[in-house]
Specification:
Strand 1 and strand 2 form a beta hairpin. It contains 7 helices and 2 strands; from the N terminus they run αββαααααα. The protein is 71% helix and 4% strand. Strands 1-2 form a two-stranded antiparallel sheet.
Length: 224
């Protein structure tokens, strides 16, 4: 059954268009490869898809530059001259911009002022004054931030000092302050001290009868 003739027009569906592009691109590259092998031809193909993606084919025995150079020789068309001229023009503009920037920097350092007229000197003076104003504002803002930071640090140190003094005063007023930590009570402490003295008396009765340590005084004081 004969194939129907395909109408050549733009494919509206994007997916179908991409699929067709890929298939026909591969077919074209296959034909170019066959020409290279069968006929010893030098073939170069450069393609850009609708999304500007580059695809290219070049015969294994040559390069793209060699093909373009050969094209210039055979067709007497200078492919590179226009591009070279554009590059030269871009280079000239960049050099001019660089010279102007260097001159402006020197003028702001007080150099190269002789070539300026009175209006240019006034403009430079106003610009420098505005710059000084911005620098001063930034300096004062930075100093203010440092002062505020220092004040906060001092306030924190003062709070720590006050807390320490307050705790020392509490210890001086109450000798039992801080004796028991972690939720303990005085009974457990007294029980431990009483057991300690009972054991001490059992093992060293004579010593216990004749000597009383500081622990004995504290224990009976707490019992009272």
């Amino acid at each position: 059954m004969a194939r129907g003739k395909i109408q050549i027009k733009r494919i509206e569906n994007q997916t179908n268009r991409q699929v067709t592009y890929s298939k026909r691109r591969n077919g074209l590259f296959k034909k170019a490869h066959e020409l290279t092998v069968l006929c010893d031809a030098r073939v170069s193909i450069i393609m850009f898809s609708s999304s500007n993606k580059l695809h290219e084919f070049i015969s294994p025995n040559t390069t793209t530059k060699e093909i373009l150079d050969l094209y210039q020789t055979v067709s007497d068309v200078d492919v590179w001259s226009a591009h070279y001229e554009r590059m030269q023009e871009t280079k000239r503009k960049l050099l001019e911009t660089n010279r102007n920037l260097r001159t402006q920097i020197k003028q702001r350092l007080g150099e190269c002022l002789d070539e300026l007229d009175i209006q240019e000197l006034r403009s430079l003076e106003e610009e420098m004054e505005n710059t000084f104003k911005l620098v001063r504002e930034r300096k004062f803002k930075s100093l203010g931030n440092q002062i505020e930071t220092t004040k906060k640090k001092n306030k924190s140190q003062q709070d720590i000092q006050k807390n320490l003094i307050h705790e020392l005063e509490l210890r001086a007023e109450d000798p039992h302050y801080g004796l028991v930590d972690n939720g303990g009570d005085y009974d457990s402490v007294l029980g431990y001290q009483l057991r300690f003295h009972q054991n001490h008396h059992h093992h060293y009765p004579n010593h216990a009868l004749h000597e009383a340590s500081a622990s004995d005084i504290i224990t009976f004081h707490l019992l009272e």
